Amino acid sequence: MLRGIGGTGIGALLAGCGVPAAYVEPGARAGRDLSARDRVLHFANWPLYIDTDDDNTSKRPTLDAFTRKTGISVRYTEEINDNDEFFGKISPALMNHQETGRDLIVISDWMAARFVRLGWVQEMDRAKQPNVAKYLDPLLRSPAFDEGRLHSVPWQSGITGIAYNRKKLGREIRSTQDLWAPDLRGKVTLLSGLDESFALLMQGNGVDVTRWTADDFHRLCDQIDKLVRTKHIRRFTGNDYIKDLSTGDVLACQAYSGDVIQLQADNPDIEFVVPEEGAELWAESLMIPNLAQHKTSAEALVDFYYQPETAAELAAWVNYVCPVPAARDVLADSGDEELAELAEDPLIFPDGDMRKRLAIARDITSEERTDFAKRWNSIVGL
Fold first, then answer.
1. Alpha helix ranges (H) inside 79-193
2. CB 315 within 8 A of CB 135
3. Helix (H/G/I), strand (E/B), else coil: 37
4. What's the rounded Cα separation, in Å, for the pair 104 and 286?
5. How far apart are CA 137 and CA 321, in angstroms?
6. Which of 52, 222, 236, 372 could pair with 192 as two cysteines, CB 3.0-4.6 Å apart?
């Protein structure tokens, strides 16, 4: 039955009903760790989310460096294309207390919150991760869903803000409220996913997203529903907002900082804004699933990526917000002009002023999710 429901259905079922049998007690999460004798680990990630060799894209320099240093080989798979889809893929094993075949996974923090609540991931041993303890960005150290970051470590981070074509619009956008100006009617898109969209929009209404309430949510839905009915919002999108913005069909939209860096390479008129009221800081985080057979090796790989030199190499390739601020100095002192420019890019290393306007939103609880998703999806048309 669960396989037939699919990823989104399973998520709604577990989140809405609790499914007590799915929860795994702390004492039942660890498996037999074969790291000492079996020098391999299985790492599942998103596509295009790691550095590759310029001449051979099947080679990943930072993973190769880890293998040379430790003798641990990494079986790296780019199998995560959607959080709900991946949830559906591995949840049958986890809820039935079975090994998933993966030692390390990368999922978005709103989905990571679900894994933590269900007890499907293990605590990491920070005594074995001195680089994480020393270099993890203070802004990312203690999200509401994982106090103290015991079960998760950011792989990369990012900002949900506003992208716009300044040349075609003919003016600046500084505030989320600027999206609702009359001259943008029919030229604005928002992200369709509830978890991806709501925080920035609430911040535009002056809400502290670290402790938003149900009233804040419904007030926002009333506002967006009206904007849809008056045809101010052109449509709701996934990552396809990139095409709309590039062609000029859309002049302003909700956007991810990493995407905009790539867009700016082709079109310098595209700008990214962290609104005056604030923007959402998020992460996609490394986690070790229950019963992983190479937990110690997985912890070592996580810590390897928190060496500033390794973090800098990865940041230079993926162009998202680097969770290791010390990597900035590595790039700045590299002697390479292009790398030094990346060190000064606030969308990779946010400056002090921008950091003051960034916040990690509290996640939607399991009790809230069913009703909130139903309301949001009715507006979006899902």
1. 83-95, 109-118, 130-135, 166-169
2. no
3. coil
4. 6
5. 10
6. 236
CA-to-CA distance for 256 and 191, rounded, in angstroms?
Answer: 10
pLDDT band at 21 (very low <50, low <70, confident <90, very high): low
243 exposure class (CB count in 10 Å sphere: 0-12, 13-18, 19+): exposed
CB–CB of 176/265 below 8 Å?
no
Residue 223: the pLDDT is: 98
Matching residue, tokens 């100095």: 329
Q: Quick check: helix, strand or coil at residue 17? A: helix
Q: Is beta strand 252-256 parallel, antiparallel or unpaired with respect to 188-191?
A: parallel
Angle (nearest 5°) at CA 193 between 373 and 265: 170
Give the separation between CA 147 and CA 152, rounded to whole angstroms: 10
Residues 6+ apart with CB under 8 A from 253: 162, 163, 164, 188, 189, 190, 237, 241, 244, 245
pLDDT of 261-312, one tens digit each?
989 988 999 999 999 999 999 999 999 999 999 999 999 999 999 999 999 9
User: Of 350, 290, 261, nearest to 123 (Cα)?
Assistant: 290
State the pairing for strand pair 40-45/73-78.
Answer: parallel
16: pLDDT strictly greater than 80 = no
Distances (CA, A) of 289 to 90, 145, 301, 361: 10, 16, 15, 24
What SS3 class is residue 24?
Answer: coil
C-alpha span between 209 and 359 (Å, rounded) = 7
User: For the chain, how many helices (H) and strands (E)?
Assistant: 16, 10
Nearest Cα to Cα of residue 199 among 160, 141, 157: 160
Cβ atoms of 131 and 303 closer than 8 Å: yes
Tokens linked to 54: 């310029």
Give pLDDT tens digits for 139-190. 999 999 999 999 999 999 999 999 999 999 999 999 999 999 999 999 999 9
Query: What SS3 state is found at 191?
Result: strand
220 CB contacts (<8 Å, ≥6 apart)?
Answer: 198, 201, 202, 205
